[in-house]
Task: structure prediction
Amino acid sequence: MAEFQSRALGRMRAAVTSLGFGTVPLAGFKAKVSFADAQAIVKAAYDGGIRYFDCAPLYGFGKAEYNLGHALRELGIREAVTVSTKVGRVLKAKSRTKALDTVYGIDWVEPLPFLDTYDYTYEGIMRSFEDSQKRLALDHIDILYVHDLGSAWHGDQADVYWKQIRESGYRALDELRSSGAVKAVGLGVNETEAVVTVAREFDIDCAMIAGRYSLLNHAPLEGAFDELRQRGVSVVAAGVFNSGVLASGVKNGGASYDYGDVPEDIAKKVAAIEDVCVAHRVSLPAAAIQFVAAHPAVATVVLGAKDVEQTRQNIESFSQDIPASFWADLTEKGLLPGTAPVPARQWAHRA
Result:
């Protein structure tokens, strides 16, 4: 079993291991998943040292929450782990609800018979939280993220939802945290701008940011991560493979970038990174994971896995030894900015 560091999020009592588990694959993402499969994956993550598990109502329209909660109970490990879920969506019966047209459309395989509706009001957040408690069968949830708030997801409709959370949604988050129903609150988004905006308006503890900081994306180095650190907001990094291209590479084909085709410029950059990996005998997934984990603003990296073997591979990749010369070559070839924190900086002082 790997020994992952335990880290507090922000200034609150919620603690996470430096590697966490994301439950999108437990919800039927591109493939059918049984409860037995889900429980085996959760057990493999736990046996491997992971003590933080994230889910959301969106994932399989409640299926990830159901599978995770039931697995934690069956395995008898609830009190040993930290659990997060999300608000901002309320699930309603599929037979009486219109499907949303979203940025990243996911056709879940055998989801639960519900569809999501957006609601960032006090009432919507409270209902979403209580519904999640029922699906998870937990009397409290450790961390609560507001899901997909901001223009990157909602586009022209973003102002509608900003108005909802500002008028009453923040009050719900404050009430849930101050009452002890949750230990920490934050955002779960695919952008950094929304996190900075909320951090300036409301005292959040953390933010799950997916895909915006990776071997391919470095924009948060331009000031966002520094500001979040100054405000005591811990970053929970997800999407570090940019939906797959940094796990599989591009040389064998079939990769995706942010749930779409891989643009030509991205493909060239990934191929160049792969060449450096080969030269130093470093796996691409290990480089992708450890690069993100090295930033001091990042408290934990959250990874999903489709089966037990992939779960174990993720744990091994997090712990793989990577020589300092590898990061030096990436930087010298212009594949990483010189300001990017990396796991080792010894090469910066070489003659």
Summary: The chain has a mean pLDDT of 94. Residues 158-179 form the longest helix (22 residues). The first strand starts at residue 6 and ends at 8.
